[in-house]
Amino acid sequence: MIDEGRFLSLFLKHERELASIARAFLPDWNAVDDVLQEASLVMWRKIHQLESDDEFLPWSKVILRFEILKARRLHARQKWVLNEELISKLMDESAEDDAEMRHAQQSAIQHCLQSFSEDHQKLLLAPHTSRGGVLALAETGSHSANSLYKRIGRLRVKLHDCVVQRLSSAELDLPI
Amino acid sequence: MNKQPIHDLIEKYFLEELNETEQAELRLALEAQRSYRDRFRRAAEIDAQLRHCWNEDIGDDEGSRPLLQSEPNSLAREPLATASHQRIDVRWLPVTVAASLIAVAGVLYSGILKPTPQPTIAQSNSAQPTAPQSVGDEATTRDSSEVAWLVTGYNHRFNDGLAPQNNSFERGDYELTDGSITLRFDSGVDVSIEAPARFTVVNSLRMKMDAGRARAIVPETGHGFVIQTPTADVEDLGTEFGVYVSEEQDVELHVFAGEVNVHTANLPSRRIQEDTAVHLTSMGTKHLSATDDVAFTTRSKIGYQRWLADSTARREDPSTLLYFDFEPDPDAPTTLRDRSQSGLAIDGQIQGCIWATGRWPNKGALLLERAGDRVELDLPGTFDALTISGWIQVNRFDQALQAFFNTRDWQPGEHHWNIQRNGGMSVGVSRAYTIHSAQKKVPLGRWTHLVASIDAQKREATYYIDGEFAQQKQWENATSIVFGPCTIGAFGSTLEAPAETATEEEANAAESSLRVEAVHYNRELRGRLDELALFAGALSAEQVKELYEAGNGFD
């Protein structure tokens, strides 16, 4: 049986994957942080349900799914881009990805990010900085925030394409 | 739909820049196409990783750019991938354990849907000599005047003029001169008949036997089904029974399960109980010593005969490179015999496993249940085109991947065949292609036919489940298919382990030549296997269908 002592390392191990799932269905990272915090509390309370480490990820995804849906109900007035049916579909399809594929994807993202120039890396990361990185960049440079967001969007598409290309060549070498 | 704008919309979603119209457009796109949803999920993962890349603890200097893993870490920061672990820290760690338990409604991800059998169109064979012959288990296009249809047959032949059209039985007389058949009435009743037999299809709840043997299996929908004989009518009350009418018009009734009513002119009806055999005469009934189960065929028996004939033909076919029928060799119980006549004699070595029953009661199989259960074999040569065909019954999905038939390791040109936890497939040839798909799934607890038809010259691979198309992939690299050491039932990966030495120092100092190869097995399969074959050449969809139908006549 898994105890609370094991919880932290399991949660840290899978935190990025859980965060990416929550981000897909919630409007911003603040909402994601809130939901992950709630979900982590529930997981902490129920960790004794698990028999082995392998069970953690599918189990934590179920809890996260409930917390996401709960958060959406709490903010029912907000207009959500994705409906619950679509969320279920995306969740189910996400469950088809195996650990090897996910690991390959994370490596590919790392690799591709490093292939961008310094300026472009800074732009790509700007929306995630704590104090309005894009606005700050706009204030210090000659571009408006709007045009910077457009450039970031294009860079993100390029980053995505790089990841897909790398995965398609890398997956040929993965044992399946 | 042009993909580029949708990709832009996906990125705008994660940049929180979508307006309402764009939101609706994105929603519709995601609902419509799996490829967009895959891209959306990947974009979420990239977004999460980008966020991790910014170490907020050192991000006070907003103008500074983040350090990436490949760069010198002059500021002794944590590597990119782990930097943000500080962000989660104790903020998310509960300090008290609440006692309230909310029921979590189960892990639902791996729900398995049993696919509905896809009906097929049966082919006409009247008055044609019939080699081991297969017909579809169901008919797709059925005539409104059709009362019953042929679901299976073995070496069957009808008399000219007294034959069904396109395996469809309308009201009328029929004469089966050779072989055996099973026909299914609209009411759901299956009647298996052996030649020689003359019979009349009357309606969906009645037939008449003039001569021959017929066995009826009657589901609830067919209660009241009647087989009319020269001396009495036999009415089903929810049962399985056999009727034999000799050329001399002697009639026997054998009730194998349930009860039947016998109606004879001028006599009151009599109820005949289970496990009873009687002579039916116009004067009444006369008990026989016992029912004779063997004397009346069933759909399953016909299916076994058909498979056996097909199996014999396959193993003698020079294009069959490898053929495991999973029948034990009494002299070598841990050897899986290659029954093909190819001369290669690539016997498998059974590790663990239990000999068990296959698709039919008298068909062998291997049950893989315990850790390490597998069959090892070594398959030499290179192939430009080949087909792998197997019958499998999966009992449980214990792991993310269960190996069906994989090479050891994953060298260029080697084929792997795994079943995902949800019944989907993870298959491919190293350096050529991979397929991860759950569009068509292997069901739990049901014998299932799997085929891979790979043409390395055309660079095209097609996969089938139960004779139906499942996936296809085309690839760029030129490669031939190879196997070498491989396993049925578990994936073996080679680990280089130091030879056993007295101390760690000695192990470290050991030359590479002293190192020994160890094979680690995982992705174990939990279920049964009862046939595996490799054929030279990539079989067509029609040939795969025939292969499936040849082995599909089981209950």
Describe the protein's architecture and organization.
The complex is a heterodimer of chains A (176) and B (555). Chain A is an all-alpha fold. Chain A has two domains: 1-81, RNA polymerase sigma factor, region 2, helix turn helix motif (Rna Polymerase Sigma Factor, Chain: A, Orthogonal Bundle), CATH 1.10.1740.10; 102-176. Chain A contains eight helices and no strands. Chain A has helices at 4-25, 29-46, 56-74, 84-94, 99-114, 118-125, 133-140, 145-170. The two termini of chain A are 30 Å apart. The model of chain A has no long low-confidence stretch (mean pLDDT 83). With 555 residues, chain B is an alpha+beta fold. Chain B folds into three domains: 1-41, no CATH class; 146-297, Sandwich (Jelly Rolls), CATH 2.60.120.1440; 301-551, Jelly Rolls, CATH 2.60.120. Chain B has eight helices and 32 strands. In chain B, α1 packs parallel to α3 (34-53). Chain B is globular and about 95 Å long. The relative contact order of chain B is 0.09. Mean pLDDT of chain B is 81; it is low at 55-142, 498-502 and 509-515. At the A-B interface, α1, α2, α3, α4 and α5 of A face α1, α2, α3, β23 and β24 of B. Chain B: InterPro entries: ConA-like_dom_sf, FecR, Ferrdict_sens_TM. Chain B: Residues 178-261 form the FecR protein domain.
